[in-house]
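Dear colleague,

Thank you for sharing your sequence with our group. We've completed the structure prediction you requested, and as agreed, I am returning the results in plain text so they can be pasted directly into your records. Please verify that the sequence below matches your submission; if there's any discrepancy, let me know and we will rerun it promptly.
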Amino acid sequence: MSESPAVASDAASSVDALSALAASAFSLPQLRDGQLAGMAALAGGRDVLAVMPTGYGKSAIYQVAAVHLHRSGTERSGTERSDTGLSGTNLSRTNAAGPRKPGPAVVVSPLIALLEDQLDGLAEELGPAAAVAINSSHSDAEVEDAWQAVEDGSATFLFLAPEQLAKQDTVERIAALDVALFVVDEAHCVSSWGHDFRPDYLSLGTARERLGNPPVAALTATASLPVREEIAERLGMKDPLVLVHGFDRPQISLAVVRHQEDKAKRRTVVEHVTEPASAGPAAGSTTGKSHGLLYAATRKDTEMYAAKLAKTGLRTEAYHAGRAGADRERIHEQFMDDDLDVVVATTAFGMGIDKPNVRFVVHADVPESLDAYYQEIGRSGRDGQPAAAVLHYRAEDLGLRKFFGTHTTDEESLLALLKILHAADGPVPKTSLAELTGFPARRVTGLLNQLQEAGAVKTGKRGVRLTSKAKLPTLVSRAVELAEARQRVDQSRINMMRGYAETDGCRRQFLLGYFGENLQQPCGNCDSCADSASLDSGGPTAGKNDDGGPATAAAAEPFPLQSAVVHNEWGPGLVMRHEDDVITVLFEQEGYKTLSRTAVLEHGLLKLA
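Please find the predicted structure tokens below.
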């Protein structure tokens, strides 16, 4: 059925209004690809999953939509949305008492520093009353003032940490506000496929239901296909508009330095960081030096590298979760203010950092996945100026990452927890579970995460309760099965990381292919392309097709990129990449697998779905 002229006119009017609002209220006269489409979708009641790098403007998508809804007095109906989402663009409603105040956009953010940055930005654009926050850093009086601001309709945005939504009274108070939008920042934290999984995010889908199923905006800077799918599933997103933009960062040169001995690698890492950090003046620098990040796998190594770099005269600090919160905050501020040349960090540093003049990111150790690597190198070159990403790779180091990535499942421990919960009359606090089992608190949390993924338990304000009526051994088996599948996927992602480090082809094509994006030609800005250029007078693009394989193979490719396939043993999958005789397929249950194209064709290993 074709769209009626009236509905089409309303939609066009909404788009025009959103565009004008972005320019007038947020100083965004020129919107980037995907921004306006996302704003219009949210304003029309449709869920949006935006995968865009930090600095691209994904926050503007929900901010403009929320202000548009708030200013127009538009409200959601009191009934739950249908599975296909709200139709049309008119969401306003009245009740017997007359028009009700527009509800706020509820924004969930994992870190107080990120939350405060967004509060400051909205205060600058819209005034200090536009956004309020509820978190542990605010006094009781400040929290109550925030509640009053959203309840009387003066505040458009309510920011809070995910753990706040585990509190019954908080959810009930928010539910009474007729929430306009439910925004999940750093949404990859909801996915156990993701590189920064956070258990507190597991309850967000349930919280959204209790808030009346408002439209969801899920935002992340990096999410491969399985991560996107799990985000949508866990948040209960229905037919979301998926926006994937800005993945290619051509200004960042990519290189891998391979090593045989650990001692030589460590020495070279220090030299590699010292050289660009000491050179100057650099683009965007106020100090005449280049600012950069060095990532290491362990806390001990961050301290070691920081000490060695300090001896060269660089202003440097080690950053990891073992340091005091005040120290971490100080280091963050010093780096943002150009008072540090290099921060040597574990993965604890970097989420949400939007520093434009980072000129290099060096990895002393191989990351756990290309998801993590992409996000970490993406913290450089945000001003559009040239930047460098260098991975120091020793094949033996993958053993360390395999150790970090292995999640053992203890069936007896899972069953012990379930028996306690089954015998309890109500929710059991985590501290009580630790005391009753004798397990360390961290182990209890890990076991509960596995049980929660299996749908066996839920965690609330008063503790943990059993939610499934299935037999306890069945629940244990389900948790074990999920954990083993996750472990297979984790191993496959480590193998993809190895593939990136060892490929002779264009590294940017390999990296983007992992995320399902097709780079038409080799980039010309990685070490592999530079090697090709030196060997081939025809340049780095000679003899290559659009996916990095031989030009002659492209026309006859039986399994095109992004095509759905089925393997007799590994089940359904999606073709992610071609290189020479190799096909990379992402299987739903097995993760990433590389297959010989010749063997696939000769033995019929794959079939188009």
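Summary note from our side: The first strand starts at residue 48 and ends at 51.

Kind regards,
the structure core
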